[in-house]
Every structure is written in structure tokens, then in C-alpha cells.
Design goal:
With about 170 residues, this protein is mainly α. Helix content is about 90%, strand content about 0%.
Length: about 170
């Protein structure tokens, strides 16, 4: 080897050193570039995994929200149906109360006229009503109507309040 070196002129030693240093620098840069590519590939893979996990979480959250919304809608539907049934029961009860009030008013009028309570035709054929009978039956009729109106308002508010409480409870689990 020393013979080979002695045959080369002195100026080629510098060129060889420059070429060797360039090759060394090229090798170092190639290693750095390879390392950067590996880092980039791993970060791209990690980002893709994060994105996939976020999309899966979003799908899960969306499905859970849809299920909860369906549960709430179903609960509200049950509350509305219960309120409708309560309102129908109140209407039926109010009709029964109105009929009972009308029967009571008829008996009251019959008692003033001296007719038998079970015979409404006798009450119709009696003498003209006196002022006391007219006043008291009118008062009883007005009181009955006012009581029906107050009961209707109370029933309506009671049904609405119960529906509100039930719907709140169904929405808050």
C-alpha cells in the first residue's frame, strides 16, 4: 500500500481527502434522511391511529346520543299518553258530577214546589216558582257552575303539573 501511495503524486492526497470527506458527509446525510423518514412514517401512523380512535369515539357518542334521544322521546310519549288518559278520566268524572248536580238541583226545585223527588213531571206541572225558590235555585245553579269551572281549572293544572313532574323525572333518569 505504501508503494501505491508513493506512486501517487502529492496533490492527489488532498483530492482524496476531499472525496473521502464528501463521501462521509453523504453517508451521514443519508443516515439522517433515513432516520427522518422513519420518524415521519411513525408519526403518520400514530396520527392515523389517533384519527381512527377519534372517529370511533365520535360514532359511539353519536349512537349513544341517538339512543338517549329515543329513550327520552319514548318517556315523553308515555307521559303524554298518561296525561291524555287522566284528562279523559277527568272529563268522565266531570260529566258524572254535572249529572249529579243537575239531579240535585231538580230535587231541590221539586222540594220547593212540594212535588215528589222521583217524579220530575210533577215538578214541571207545579205552581209558579216563588221568589225564594227562584233565588235559591238560581244561587245553587250558579254555585254549581262556579264549582265546575274551578274544578276544571284545578284538574287541568293538576294534570299539567303531574305531566311536568313525570317528564322531568323521565328526562333526568
Amino acid at each position: 500500500m505504501s508503494l501505491l501511495l508513493s506512486l501517487l503524486p502529492y496533490k492527489w492526497w488532498g483530492v482524496g481527502a476531499i472525496v473521502a470527506s464528501l463521501l462521509l458527509a453523504l453517508g451521514v446525510q443519508t443516515l439522517r434522511l433515513g432516520s427522518a423518514r422513519v420518524d415521519l412514517a411513525s408519526s403518520i401512523t400514530a396520527r392515523a391511529q389517533e384519527r381512527a380512535a377519534a372517529e370511533a369515539a365520535a360514532r359511539t357518542a353519536s349512537e349513544e346520543a341517538r339512543i338517549e334521544e329515543q329513550r327520552r322521546a319514548s318517556a315523553i310519549g308515555r307521559v303524554v299518553n298518561a296525561a291524555i288518559k287522566s284528562a279523559e278520566a277527568v272529563v268522565s268524572d266531570n260529566a258524572a258530577v254535572r249529572a249529579a248536580h243537575d239531579r240535585l238541583l231538580g230535587r231541590y226545585r221539586a222540594a220547593f214546589r212540594g212535588a215528589a223527588p222521583g217524579n220530575p213531571s210533577a215538578a214541571d206541572s207545579g205552581p209558579p216558582a216563588s221568589a225564594a225558590e227562584s233565588l235559591s235555585t238560581d244561587l245553587l245553579a250558579r254555585l254549581g257552575e262556579a264549582a265546575r269551572q274551578l274544578a276544571a281549572v284545578a284538574d287541568e293544572r293538576g294534570i299539567a303539573g303531574n305531566a311536568c313532574v313525570k317528564s322531568y323525572e323521565s328526562l333526568t333518569k
